[in-house]
Every structure is written in C-alpha cells, then in structure tokens.
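User: Can you help me understand a structure? I only have the sequence.
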Amino acid sequence: MGSTTGDVPAWAAHLAGTDFDQKDVLRALLASASSKSNSKSDSQNNNGDDDDPAALAAALEAAIAQNPSSLTALLDSLPAPATSTTTAPPPPPQTPQTAPPGMTPITPHPWHVLKTRLKTTCADWPAGLKVFVNLCRSPDVPPPPIVAPKDVWAAIGNDASDSGGGGGYKVPLSLSGPRSDRDKEGRVCLVFEACVNDAPARLADEDDDYRFFLQQLCLEFLEEKHGVELDRNYTTPKMKAKGPLSTHYIPPTTSSPNPPQRKSQSSSSSA
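Assistant: Let's start by predicting it. Here is the structure, written out as tokens:
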C-alpha cells in the first residue's frame, strides 16, 4: 500500500491533519471497504482494538487489499472538513440610512471622475494619498439661477473659489463625506462626491470651458468643506464612478429654470 508512518499507512496518517476524528473516519472506511470487498474483517468484531488507529488502519489495509479499486472511491466520497473554506465571510449588513430632519434624500447618477492626490497631510491622511472625486448629477439638485449669458462666461473667467463664480452666477452642489476605498493596485485611497443638477452637467458636456469651470468649482468646495488641499494636476480616468454612489441629503427647494446656453461658436478643447 506504499509508504507508512509507523503502523499507519501514509494516506491514513494524513487524515490526522484534518478536522475529522481519525478513528471515526477509519472505522467508517473499514466498514465500507469490508462491505465492498464482500469479506469480513476481524476488526469489525468488538475485540478491544477498535480505539487503536493503527489496528484499524491495518484492518482497513487488509480489507482494501481484496478490492484495491475501492480505495479511490472511498477517499473520493470522504466529505470535506466543515471548517475548510476559501470563501470570505460575507460583509456585515449596512445600517440603513435615515434622512436628517428637514432633509430630502436624492439618488445621484454617475457622470465622470477626477483622480488627484492630497498635496498636504490632513489629520490621518498623508500627503500624496490618492483621491478620487465622483462628479455626479441629479435633477433633484437645484439648478443655477437665471442670469445673463455674459455673467455665466464671466464666471468661467473668474476664480472658481468665488463661491461658484462671479456676476451672481452660482452653481449649487451637493457634497458627500469622504470614504475609504482601494485603487486597482489594492492601495488605500479616498473617495469624495460632488453632485450638480442635470442642466449644468449637460452644458459641461457641450463646452470644455464650462466643464473645466465645474471641475475646479467642485474641487474648491471639497477643499473648503473638508479642510484638505487637492492637487490641481488631476486626470479623468475612463470611468463614470469610483465605487457605488452614496445617497445625498439636501434641503427642500423649489425648481429653477435651466441655466442659459452658450451661443453657438467653436470652442477650443481645454486640458
């Protein structure tokens, strides 16, 4: 039957490394092998040796010797240990979120992503930590107010930190808190969200200058809210969202008309 460990065959000794009781396994295999070989083994009698693994193994070898092919079938039928598993435990159930008093929950829709880094250390977040900003959209976020087109494009030329632009043109934003995630290399990163109304998002899809204006605006607002400094040398990876989007909560508002559309003209592509 091949090499042995003491008086116990090597394959039988291997069972000691499992979560099964070795003697119970050997008894079960012995009974099955004896039945398959249509022969009786003395070890099946209550002779006082049925608690000795070596004696059980020897009797098993004798039974299997009469029917060698039964060994493979017997071992294949052996159930897997109860604790042997490669499946990761399920994640803990998430606690359902409830809307704060007086706030309305909204579901943002993916739009595009900015990838940047922290320029300076902030609390437990080291400088250089990778940051993803999910720019998302929703019809439930209030649109910008009606202003003259010249004020919109004047705002684009101003510093985005001017509370959403100059000339009275301001873009409402809904910002989420940061959450931890992993990048494609498995390293820890931060994810923020900034949600705008569908109307300015559509305008940004049509005009690169306005798109750049909104991106800068979102970064400015996130810095102000969370006390971080983000690198402006960001990239736009080919993804609509980094991870699942969270539920946002906004105060009840009344709808406003869409922002003005830029007059048809050729616009140069911005970086």
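Now, to help you interpret it: Helices lie at 10-13, 22-36, 53-65, 70-76, 149-157, 198-206, 208-226. The chain has a mean pLDDT of 73. Let me know which part you'd like to focus on.
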